[in-house]
């Protein structure tokens, strides 16, 4: 939830200043720094979430397994994230194989990508880019928080990057 969304919750005449809300959020972040749950900033605002070192314990409480994504889907979303805006043809050229309509549909349904525009070439292919939901899912505040592509390539070559 963003500061603006929190501000909108209050009746107009009783609403605190946005800076007061931000100060309260900062105070909560500080208060929760030693707790198992913390208040974290993501692209769409702030959310409470279990700290990384507590995740294995919390996972034991829930039988539901997180969805498993295919290597092809993860490669596709990575290409979109690092190269956006890209067309399906661009993705296919980088991957060296065709990209199924189902895969693009899955990314659109999960709201990880959206059509930003259409390329001004014959056929007007869609240009895809990532969304705030993508950033939130991968716990990123912005695309700048992603590791440099060169770093990922080096890890992949060393066999340390597991997809």
TrEMBL record:
GO process annotations (BP): cell division; chromosome separation
Cross-referenced InterPro entries: ScpB_csome_segregation, WH-like_DNA-bd_sf, WH_DNA-bd_sf
Pfam family, one: SMC_ScpB
Source organism, top-level taxon: Bacteria
Keywords for this protein: Cell cycle, Cell division, Chromosome partition, Cytoplasm
Annotated signal peptide: none
Keyword Cell division: yes
UniProt-listed Gene3D superfamilies: Winged helix-like DNA-binding domain superfamily/Winged helix DNA-binding domain (1.10.10.10)
PANTHER family linked to this entry: SEGREGATION AND CONDENSATION PROTEIN B (PTHR34298:SF2)
Family matches, as NCBIfam families: SMC-Scp complex subunit ScpB
Protein's UniProt name: Segregation and condensation protein B
Source species: Methyloprofundus sedimenti
